[in-house]
Amino acid sequence: MLMFWNGYALPTVIIVAQVVAIVVPLMLAVAYLTYAERKVLAAMQLRMGPNVVGWWGLLQPIADGLKLLTKETVIPSGANRLLFVAAPMLSFILALVAWAVIPFSAGMVLANINVGVLYLFAISSLGVYGIVVAGWASNSKYAFLGALRSAAQMVSYEVSIGFVIVTVIMCAGSMNLSKIVEAQKHVWFFIPLFPMFIVFFISGLAETNRTPFDLAEGESELVAGYFVEYSSMTFALFYLGEYANMILISAMTAVLFLGGWLPPIDIAPLNWIPGPVWFALKIAVGLFFFLWARATLPRYRYDQLMRLGWKVFLPFSLLWVALTAGVLVYGGLV
After folding, report:
1. To which H or E segment does residue 81 belong?
2. Helical H segments across 208-274, by residue range
3. DSSP summary character for residue 152
4. 101-132: burial string, b at 16+ Cβ within 10 Å, e else
5. In a domain? residue 15
6. Distance CA 89, CA 98 (A)
7. Residue 119: inside a domain, yes or no?
8. What pLDDT, in 10s, does the model give residues 251-276?
9. How confident is the model over 198-227, as pLDDT tens digits?
10. How far apart are CA 216 and CA 195, in angstroms?
């Protein structure tokens, strides 16, 4: 059996090896992102953070994973057993398959398709299904209300993200993510599209249900939200999916606005550093801002969240799309 990569026929074994080469480092990154989050929050709150399991607490993510693996999976008596178990699997799988079109360097991409942006947008839209199914299948009013909250939040901010991506596509002239990165050789898009860069990152916080938009959780009314009935590895899959989505949003920010694998300045010493290293550094910077936001910002009220999405970000992103189109057409850039 043959599959195609960058226009060339490749054996299935090579494709599987490439998938493993993406998934294994991603899983390690997800595990140690939880460690990094706890360390960053501890530093910002003048605490120690994990420091017992292993040197500097470096084995804490492995200990947490083993703990969740050995716990019993409790399924509520009134739950739909099939959908209850399938929902976290769906959320986790969608967080992984989006990486098929993310370019790590020039030519280093699993599927170099011409509609990579459309593929990413479609995968992120499907993430709502896992959350709604989890809330409904749990047969719990708290889980269901949390799922409705989270789904409405994700759908609302996907609209703004869509218009932001449209401005990037217009500037790059392509929906191929590698070509979008190559279009930023002279100037990264976050400079001419700085307002869209800010809207995209804040919408990414809302899309991943992170602080200050973690409205799916609410200790006073909804407890843990849509996964309140989950335990052991089913809970862990939601947890891993959330952190994988954080890494994905940071990677999309790097590709769309920060030049992907390109160095900040085109000079020889910086060009010697491999593209994947630059890409990983940009992702790390984006993730730090995710963690910084959690440490410093209070949670929004739900009406404030929806007002920001529909009455501020949506009209502003629409206006910027029109302005970008006007500049490109009348400036003779297209």
Report:
1. helix 81-97
2. 232-257, 268-271
3. H
4. bbbbbeebbbbbbeebbebbbebbeebbebbb
5. no
6. 15
7. yes
8. 999 999 998 888 887 777 777 888 88
9. 999 999 998 888 888 887 766 655 566 788
10. 27
Q: CA nearest 146: which of 282, 37, 138?
A: 138
Question: What are the tokens at 301?
Answer: 């009220």
Tell me the whole-structure pTM to 2 decimals: 0.90
State the Cα–Cα distance between residues 196 and 183, nearest whole angstrom.
17
Residue 181 lies in a domain: yes
- Which residue from 86, 84, 217 is spatially nearest to 139, judged by alpha carbons? 84
Structure tokens belonging to residue 211: 């602080």
* Domain presence at residue 169: yes
By three-state DSSP, how is residue 5 classified?
strand
CA 33, CA 47: separation in Å to the nearest integer? 18
Separation between Cα atoms, residue 185 and residue 269, nearest integer Å: 16
CB 126 within 8 A of CB 190: no
Q: Domain range spanning residue 235?
A: 58-330
Chain centroid to Cα 133, Å, comes to 20
Domain count, the chain: 1
